[in-house]
Design goal:
15 strands; Fructose-1,6-Bisphosphatase, Chain A, domain 1; binds calcium ion; D-Maltodextrin-Binding Protein, domain 2; 5-stranded mixed beta sheet; binds D-MYO-inositol-1-phosphate
Length: 255
Amino acid sequence: MLDKVIEAAQIAGEIIKEGYRKNISIEYKTNLANLVTEIDKKSEEAIINFISKEFPGHSVLAEESGIKERDSEYKWIIDPLDGTTNFAHGLPIFSVSIAVQRSDEVICGVVYDVMREAIYSAEKGGGAFCNGRKLKVSLNDDLRKSLLVTGFPYNIDENPGHAIERFVIFLKNSRAVRRLGSAAIDLCYVAEGIFDGFWEVSLNPWDMAAGKLIVEEAGGVVTNFNNEPLDLAGKQILATNGKIHDKMLKLLNSV
Ligand code: IPD
Ligand code: CA
Ligand code: CA
Ligand code: CA
């Protein structure tokens, strides 16, 4: 199964590479900040065609075309291009994120960091890897020495989930906070021990599903802001090395 998920991500990655820095059509979804390009759509179409051929009975949830429910315990959760804003502006930080659930549990996840040609992957109980190299979260337990990462929703003008106040709090209580623009890559960098922690207030299942398993299989912890198991439909996510989890929870809940 994992090999097939990787194959699907690579097919999508080729489409994305081909479209990078080319004159492509861009549409707005909800406002001027929220873009979808023809490459997002082509990538998604290619992944869904692949699934229809290889696993015709499986259900699919994909960002641009929504849900195709079939009578199956398997469901693919797809972000065909995570980091569309970066892609549209030519910033080489974007990914393809694909997870497969069996009976509502994510059993495998792949994030393809396209321009670095880095394939992050995990299977439940089997560890997490990047291009075959085993991943391990960082050992840092001091929030003041932590490098954190976050992201902002497209409706940041409405400040959902106190996103702005929470950002300021972590700026003041960590070494630094980054904003890369691809939640799936943010999660992989937590798994790799580059970032010590990642939080975001308003994500969708396709942003989180694959990366969550990759962090957990690298020894990290992923919850909502109440320290409960992550609900993929629950919007909020906190993913850390485990050692700074409680400290981040405390600050997240101080707003
Ligand atoms: C976005 C990215 C970004 C995050 C946004 C997401 P998209 O996904 O993951 O890092 O901050 O909340 O919507 O739209 O580029 O697939
Ligand atoms: Ca999007
Ligand atoms: Ca996304
Ligand atoms: Ca996307």
